Amino acid sequence: MTRVALCSLVNDDEQFARCQASLRRVAQPFPEWLKVEPNRNGWNAARGLNHGLGELDADWVVCVHQDVLFPEGFWARLTGALAALPTEVALAGIVGCEASGAYRGHVFDPNGHCYWPSLPADVAALDEVLIAVRRASGLRFDERVPGFHCYGADICYQARQRGLRVVAIDAPLVHLSTGSLDEHYQQASRWLMERWGAEFGYVLATPAQLLRDDPRAGFLHRLLHRWRRRGARRSRNRNPCREQPCPARTLGEVECAS
What is the pLDDT of residues 162-211, one digit of tens each? Predict the structure, then answer.
């Protein structure tokens, strides 16, 4: 039996309690879930999540944001999808993007019901809202990544460098925010580009943003990525998912109306 535990970075106890309560309604027995308070310990995101990977005894550690809600059927879909993945898959998530910039995944967030088939699908990088790490892979978040951004893309690029697979699965949830691309994000993205830019032609596909080092990236290379990315963004609310009505969409629309 595949053992799955959760880990969350928490700076809002009320929000985290609401998040946990939503999973209690759909997951029995309730899984082990480690709360990590990085600000109290002076840790960045990577160090906090690595603490969770070291503390939890499970096949998969699901690193999930505190600002999410779980719809009916979520836990069964997530655990079933993780159990079915072959051993060369080291990381799994619910939203990701291919190296071309095109999205794959399924989520309800402030942009609405976002679905990019088909799933499961190999991707280059996963959105940090949920990243499941196969502990046996030995992968860990790089604690040099500054702050609380881009640590997810970095561990995905680590996996690809080692010949391991990164996969987006179909287990949607409701994400109550999309984060902000502030100066802290820009600092982390510059770090990411310095580490991985040369290996990927100075265009790095991440779910948050298509990162480019224009002076060093070829014009056609940049143009193709931007064209594919634009098409993926335009299609995000148009694709009907395989389950109707979609539990994540139903829950998300209720939350947005309340």
Answer: 999 999 999 999 999 987 788 999 999 999 999 999 998 888 989 988 88
The tokens describing 119, both together, are 């799933």
pLDDT in tens, 110-119: 999 999 999 9
pLDDT in tens, 24-70: 999 999 999 999 999 999 999 999 999 999 999 999 999 999 999 99
Residue 68 has what pLDDT?
Answer: 98
Please tell me the CATH code under which domain 4-257 is placed: 3.90.550.10
Which residue type does 40 have? R
The rounded distance, in Å, linking the Cα atoms of 62 and 19 is 14
Tokens matching residue 238: 């148009």
Q: Can you give the residue ranges of every domain in the chain?
A: 4-257
In single-letter form, the type of residue at position 59 comes to D
Q: Quick one: three-class SS letters along the chain? A: CCCEEEEEECCCHHHHHHHHHHHHCCCCCCCCEEEECHHHHCCCHHHHHHHHHHHCCCCEEEEECCCEECCCCHHHHHHHHHHHCCCCEEEEECEEECCCCCEEEEEEECCEEEEECCCCEECCEECCCEEEEEHHHCCCCCCCCCCCCCHHHHHHHHHHHCCCEEEECCCCCEECCCCCCCHHHHHHHHHHHHHHCHHHCCEEECCCCEEECCCCCCHHHHHHHHHHHHHHHHHCCCCCCCCCCCHHHHHHHHHHHC
Position 134 pLDDT exceeds 80: yes
